[in-house]
Design a protein that fits this description.
Length: about 775
């Protein structure tokens, strides 16, 4: 079919800028015809191809053949809007051409749906377009079957498939991003449920992915489109507010532009371009949410961009900007000297322009291409080939995500999702290896986080670190531009104490995995003790070795009862989960035995099942899992909240278990054997728990400031159980509040709400005295 389409004269020969589709019984009326607008670049290629009697270069030949096959294969198919389906692959190809993708990638964009939606086989694609296009189309077809939802296991598995495809040839994801962008542009034709699902996965997966690959051209529009459909009211309000003040803003921006242009010319700079651009809506809204501010309080809704001819001119232009306007301290970033891992380079600074803050970006033309189009702007993607092999260091994060399958972690769905979010979203600290490579890490990362980012074995055998050639503690937070050297020893092993200061999910997961493997006997015993304490000793050993327990293990995706006990002992499974599934299996067996008329055994199983059911119900009411049947208390030294990682410590004497935050300093001196893995009960929907939190607020000493703070908390439904104020002449007042909160996220919102008040100088969470 492909050859016939490419090599034969068709009745719809492409000679003009539009094609009139033949009438089709699937259309709304027999006489209805649609016009398909062909992008000018494609029209030119097609016309040149026909005029020169099909003897153009192979790249043009590839694109013409791909268009004709796509046009014929999709003929008669309609989109949800009622338009001909060919509009979609044309739009995808146009987006790929816009970011400078190669002919093979553009051809794959035209053909990306023909295998899934028509009768064309992959073998036909390979015969007519070559192996490279076939591999790209196959990769996109596989990604087309991936849909993300709220089920952790399915989402993790789908993401694994995506990153495996990326590791094979990252250009597959270029096509998928273009496909997603056009689908988001036309999402209004879908039902509400599909719109929300697609928009949410666009925001959570595809927009961060475009950012990680440096394709800002796609990222900004994907974010804004997702914002439009997920928060329609906020989107409309913000768009209206921006439109109202547009003329004033443009007037101020033009004055600033003209002044800057004059000063740049006076300094001797030539061949530069200076433009003003509005920030995209989602970026402005995110800043408003993050800082708890209204639109009128956000000043930098526009930015200046200066594009010059070379790197030296970038720094010269920066000096002119700082001479023209007063720079804002702490807002300068040099991504030219220290590029981001995705290749982004630019100088960023913020200045006070026309009485308002304004952001200025300075870069060269080539840097601008990379900033807009990311990996697609790099020569190797235009020439073909996979970055997985040709630029391995730059895509080290991708290699690590794929390694999860090789290390046997296919069941650690939550861990995998956490690592993906860590690697997809913006990094804030950039450090340098002994070889001069730049590695991006989450802000606050330590030497251990860095070591595990490089490789699992380096982390597992890390025993020291040099920062800027000086020996430093492993817990030292890394700063931008630090030179890092990891010292290793084959006899060194991870310490659970590291969990108190590492911040990246990758490091935390690797430490826990090592501990699980090296302390298996200990965790099995702990899991067995937890289960025996809950069920009782009578018949416990026979129950452990029963078929019911083995089936429970298999239902938990574990190979044996020992694996089940180990997972329970380490905290991978909760006691509530095991008891519930055990109760279900016993119930099934009871029915089977009843059918066999073995009443005595059935009665015994029913009693055991009732006992498990009762205790399981009681367990479900506890806000913390892992302490079932034990006395425990929340540590006042750190006052943990749901949403924070916690650990239990066995107190000496008769004080039971104390629940701490994992990063609590009081946990460090406690031996490992007195630590108990615990977690917040995610299934607890019965209790409306409020946890006491102490806040220390430094404010300007004026009459009524405490009342204003209490009123703001009252408006948010937050109860204050204790409040006191300390004042000293000529110094800020100190307010200590004890508030009842439900979660860690509520704590952050509360702090942000108080911090946004004009009289508040500082606010911090402290231990309860």
């Amino acid at each position: 079919m492909a050859e016939a389409t490419a090599n034969s004269k068709e009745k719809n020969e492409i000679k003009v800028s539009t094609i009139i589709l033949p009438e089709n019984k699937n259309y709304e009326s027999e006489s209805l015809k649609y016009e398909i607008n062909i992008p000018n670049w494609l029209l030119e290629i097609i016309q040149n191809y026909e005029v020169s009697n099909k003897k153009n270069n192979s790249n043009q030949d590839l694109i013409v053949k791909a268009f004709k096959l796509a046009y014929e294969a999709h003929n008669g198919q309609l989109r949800a809007s009622g338009e001909p389906y060919i509009i979609h692959p044309l739009a995808v190809a146009d987006l790929l051409k816009e970011i400078g993708a190669s002919s093979s990638v553009v051809a794959a964009g035209l053909l990306h749906d023909v295998v899934e939606d028509t009768g064309i086989a992959l073998s036909e694609i390979e015969v007519n377009f070559g192996l490279e296009v076939k591999v790209l189309v196959e990769g996109v077809t596989k990604l087309g079957g991936i849909h993300f939802n709220n089920r952790t296991e399915a989402q993790a598995e789908n993401l694994r498939k995506m990153f495996l495809a990326m590791a094979s040839d990252i250009r597959v994801v270029l096509v998928k991003l273009a496909d997603r962008l056009h689908n988001m542009r036309t999402i209004q034709w879908l039902n509400e449920e599909r719109k929300e699902r697609i928009a949410r996965e666009t925001r959570e997966i595809y927009a961060p992915l475009a950012n990680r690959l440096g394709i800002n051209r796609f990222k900004w529009e994907l974010e804004d489109l997702a914002f439009k459909f997920l928060e329609p009211e906020e989107y409309k309000n913000l768009k209206d507010q921006i439109a109202v003040k547009r003329s004033d803003r443009e007037k101020r921006l033009n004055v600033t532009l003209n002044l800057m242009k004059e000063n740049l010319v006076s300094s001797g700079l030539v061949n530069f371009e200076i433009t003003g651009r509005p920030k995209h809506l989602y970026g402005i809204w995110s800043k408003m949410e993050r800082q708890q501010k209204q639109f009128g309080e956000i000043y930098d809704v526009a930015a200046l961009r200066i594009i010059v001819s070379n790197t030296d001119s970038c720094y010269k232009a920066l000096a002119v900007v700082h001479d023209t306007f007063r720079p804002i301290p702490g807002r300068f970033k040099d991504y030219i000297g220290l590029p981001k891992p995705n290749g982004y380079q630019s100088l960023h600074t913020s200045v006070i322009g026309r009485h308002r803050p304004i952001e200025v970006q300075i870069r060269t033309s080539s840097m601008h291409q990379i900033a807009e189009f990311g990996i697609a702007a790099h020569w190797q993607y235009k020439e073909g080939g996979s970055p997985a092999s040709s630029n391995a260091e730059r895509f080290n994060w991708l290699r690590q995500l794929v390694e999860w399958q090789q290390e046997g972690n296919e069941k650690d769905h939550n861990d995998y999702l956490a690592s993906i979010k860590e690697d997809l979203f913006d990094e804030e600290v950039f450090v340098i290896t002994p070889k001069g490579d730049v590695v991006g890490l989450r802000k606050g990362s330590t030497a251990i986080d860095f070591a595990y980012r490089i490789h699992s074995e380096i982390g597992n055998h890390c025993n020291g670190i040099r920062i800027n050639e000086k020996l430093s503690p492993l817990s030292t937070s890394l700063q931008n531009g630090d030179f890092i050297e990891i010292l290793t020893n084959t006899n060194s092993t991870p310490s659970l104490d590291w969990l108190n200061f590492v911040v990246t999910p990758t490091a935390k997961n690797r430490i826990r995995q090592w501990y699980k493997k090296s302390h298996r006997d200990e965790t099995i015993k702990r899991g067995k003790d937890l289960l025996e304490k809950e069920i009782g000793r009578n018949g416990f050993e026979s129950l452990i070795s029963s078929d019911a327990m083995k089936k429970v293990a298999h239902r938990c995706n574990l190979k044996s009862t020992e694996d089940l006990l180990a997972s329970l002992g380490f905290g991978g499974l909760t006691l509530h989960q095991v008891l519930n599934r055990l109760r279900e299996e016993i119930k099934i067996q009871t029915e089977e035995i009843k059918n066999e008329s073995n009443e005595e055994l059935a009665r015994s199983l029913i009693n055991k099942n009732n006992s498990i059911a009762t205790k399981s119900h009681a367990t479900n009411k506890s806000p913390i899992t892992g302490v079932e049947g034990l006395d425990y208390r929340i540590g006042k030294c750190c006052s943990p909240l749901p949403g924070e990682e916690i650990i239990g410590t066995v107190s000496l004497g008769n004080h039971g278990i104390t629940i701490h935050r994992r990063d609590c300093e009081n946990v460090i001196p406690i031996p490992i054997e007195r630590r108990l893995p615990v977690a917040w009960n995610q299934e607890n929907k019965i209790l409306d728990n409020k946890f006491p939190i102490q806040l220390r607020i430094e404010v300007i000493d004026r009459v009524g400031v405490l009342k204003d703070i209490l009123m703001r908390l009252s408006d948010k439904g937050i109860n204050v159980s204790d409040a006191n104020v300390k004042t000293a002449f000529g110094k800020p007042a100190i307010i200590n509040l004890c508030v009842g909160l439900e979660s860690y996220s509520q704590l952050h919102k509360t702090i942000d709400q108080i911090k946004s008040m004009a009289d508040v100088l500082d606010i911090a969470r402290v231990g309860i005295s």
